[in-house]
Amino acid sequence: MIASFFRHLNHCNTRYLLVSGQATILYGAATFSEDIDLWVDPEQDNLDRLRQALHACRATYYKLTPPLLAEYAVRHHGFHFLLPAEGGGLPGFLDVMGYPPRVGTFADAFNRSRVFDTDWGRLPSVGIPDLVELKKTQRPRDYPIISRLVLALMREKGDAVNDSDRGWALDNMFSLPEFKRLVIDHPNMVSAVNSTHGPLRLAAEVLHRQELLSEALEDDVEDHFDHKAAPLRKADRHFWRPVIDDLRQLRAEGVLLSQGTPV
């Protein structure tokens, strides 16, 4: 069913990028995702191509979804669909956005994207730096995934890692186990840690000496990561409040499509 959906997307020349759960799986930062998340070019001609692909798959609207129009995409609304199962299996959940937060334009992200060979065909995914920004949500469970994405990018760069990469890695590290792995795998990381990183400097020096962190230092490092993530989670929560308010207004006006409506 999913392979068929992507074949229809490509047949209709839909411009899209894989994001969120399935993208993190492709980069090795997660192992499971219940749905498919796409970032699509929000131009109306491309949304029309997406609608053609969904219609060909006999998809239906799901949850609180406005019509698939650019005027709603530009207001950061998501579009939610059910892909019917083949052979009596479970349906697939599809979430689509045209203007996700924190990542700039689709065109720029597409230029930074990466294509993967998968069981569903060759699929374009957002690059790791863009995926990191997309994962800075209000959900606490996303921050260890961000840290694993950091490790994945550092592994990809290998010997080409530079000071800018090390600074970016530290800025986007939110998990103690992944921080330990980062310092062990990249000994030069110690020199990149400065006073703005709080207890990470001392922790990096201890790990560089191949010693164990004390329980107190581990607590300090985890508190540091929690403190760093808190304003990001708050910012994401505040970003979505007016979108949710707009969605409520659209529902009151009868604009939203009923669940089960064919695309």
Describe the protein.
With 263 residues, this protein is an alpha+beta fold. The chain has twelve helices and seven strands. Strands 1-2-5-4-3 form a five-stranded mixed β-sheet. A two-stranded antiparallel ribbon has the order 6-7. The chain is elongated, with a radius of gyration of 21 Å. The mean pLDDT is 94.
Quick summary of this structure?
The protein has 263 residues and is α+β, with helices and mostly antiparallel strands. Helices cover 51% and strands 13% of the residues. A hairpin with an 8-residue loop joins strand 4 and strand 5.
List the helices and strands and how they pair.
Elements: H1 2-11, E1 16-19, H2 20-26, E2 35-40, H3 44-56, E3 60-61, H4 70-73, E4 78-83, E5 92-97, H5 106-111, E6 114-118, E7 121-125, H6 128-134, H7 142-157, H8 163-171, H9 176-185, H10 189-192, H11 200-208, H12 215-252
Parallel strand pairs: 2-5
Antiparallel strand pairs: 1-2, 3-4, 4-5, 6-7
Helix pairs in contact: 1-3, 6-7, 7-9
Please tag this protein with its features.
single chain; alpha+beta; five-stranded mixed sheet; 263 residues; 12 helices; two-stranded antiparallel sheet; 7 strands; elongated
